[in-house]
Write a structure and sequence with these properties.
Blueprint (H helix, E strand, L loop, with lengths): L2 H31 L3 H27 L5 H9 L5 H25 L15 H24 L4 H15 L8 H7 L13 H23 L14
Helix pairs in contact: 1-2, 1-4, 2-6, 3-4, 3-8, 4-7, 5-6, 5-8
């Protein structure tokens, strides 16, 4: 197996398990919380952060543990990966994210594809996604430079916090956003809201890239090491 093939397999496994966690914990959280949205959100955030930490630790040394087209794109912009690898990463992330949602549905004996019904639109939601993605990407770029061994904990901690301080509950990931338009669970989003979310995420990514260039320089010494998102 080639190096790129191993990287893509790691990205596939990580992204699929991440989405299975996001959606599955949302289903379970609602089922166990008796309609208490706060408890359901806490369960969803804790499960996602925990899974992120594990997946980054075990898969980061193989692929960099992007699991997120926004992360892959910023790494391409910084020269950490080439065009071929970046395109392959993004395609695998999108496919794996969709299959991860379907896996979660299957585990709870639900219809595999469920067009989302959860409305997530408006300036506050879009601003939240820009902020969430900005913080995630900046955490990765600065963390890999200053505390590379701490990146798994940094990313997991940031995502856990961002679930609570953003109005959108911090999708911060275009592949995750698209895949979550295929679930009617607590974690879902309407298909018609996806494009605006993704655009907002890309704005946040570009802003983080610009700030990192100022703080770290053009390359910043990231070396493409363990990075990820939800």
């Amino acid at each position: 197996m080639t190096s790129l093939s191993r990287n893509l397999l790691a990205e596939f496994i990580g992204t699929a398990l991440l989405l299975a966690t996001v959606v599955g914990s949302g289903v379970m959280g609602v089922a166990l919380s008796n309609g208490n949205d706060g408890i359901a959100l806490l369960a969803n955030a804790a499960a996602t952060a925990g899974a992120l930490y594990v997946l980054i630790v075990i898969l980061g040394p193989i692929s960099g543990a992007h699991f997120n087209p926004a992360v892959t794109l910023v790494m391409r912009m910084r020269g950490e990966i080439d065009n071929r690898a970046a395109v392959a990463y993004v395609l695998v992330q999108v496919v794996a994210a969709i299959l991860g949602v379907m896996l979660a549905h299957a585990m709870f004996e639900q219809a595999l594809i469920q067009p989302g019904t959860h409305a997530r639109s408006g300036i506050a939601q879009w601003l939240s996604e820009s902020v969430a993605t900005f913080g995630l990407v900046l955490t990765i770029l600065l963390g890999v430079r200053h505390r590379p061994a701490a990146v798994p904990a940094l990313v997991a901690s940031y995502i856990f916090a961002a679930y609570w301080f953003t109005a959108s509950t911090s999708f911060a990931n275009p592949a995750v956003t698209l895949a979550r338009s295929l679930t009617q669970s607590f974690a879902g989003i309407r298909p018609e809201d996806v494009i605006a979310f993704v655009l907002a995420q890309l704005v946040g990514m570009l802003a983080a890239h610009g700030v990192a260039r100022v703080l770290l320089g053009p390359r910043g010494g990231t070396h493409g090491d363990a990075v990820a998102n939800r």
